[in-house]
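Schema walkthrough. Field components (list of strings):
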Amino acid sequence: MNHPRHQLDAIIHNATRFSIMAALLPADKAEFKFIRDTVEITDSVLSQHVTALEQAGYVKVTKGQVGRRPRTWLSATRAGRAAFHAHLAVLNQLANWSPTAQEHRAST
Amino acid sequence: MVEQDAARARTVLGEAARAGGRTTAAGRWWSGYMVLMGLLAFGLIVAVEAFFPSFAARLAATVAWAMAIGLLGTWARSHEVQPRGGFRRLLIAMAAWFGAYLVVIGPVVRWQAGTSLGWWSAAGGVMALPFLVGAWREGRRT
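Field assembly_structure (string):
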């Protein structure tokens, strides 16, 4: 049970949610449709993923208006950023993981 | 299984890097915004201290400046991405600019040089530096 796979965050393990978080990280806030275009998914799919991320406390949704246009802003919360970085570390481990390297690490 | 995990992890990481890079690129407009704010800050100082000595003219210049700031703010809000830490850097730059004008550089230049255009231009340039530093830091984001 020491495979890094077991340490992955269940909420952002989904590749689309992970990409959403990755797209939100360099921003204080980003518009819903920008994230939709960046992750290349439809409005409804993004809505579903954002609801899941919001329920987990990883994303905050703000509605506002610029001029006459209504806008929905998404931002990553502190918990979301921490979860992303932890998940990222595990993914990096996974990307470079090999059983022999693991055995070598365990023996030293 | 292990190789599949590693390959999938690499794919996800690559996609995440692409998504993050797109957001970073979409937030680059903020450095231009900071430069414009710096130019407005410089313009206000020179206008009220060197060009318009009367109270009414100073007031008119300040109102025009506030309107320009408001328009620029509307333009800023119209962008799809507000880069991380950009607003905080803007607040710090504004506080440093106003503090320098009110307490440090402003009183000294007023006392030593009166309404000299050259002195106030130099002082305005120095006081606008926090905006340019903020713009430079924003531009360095990868």
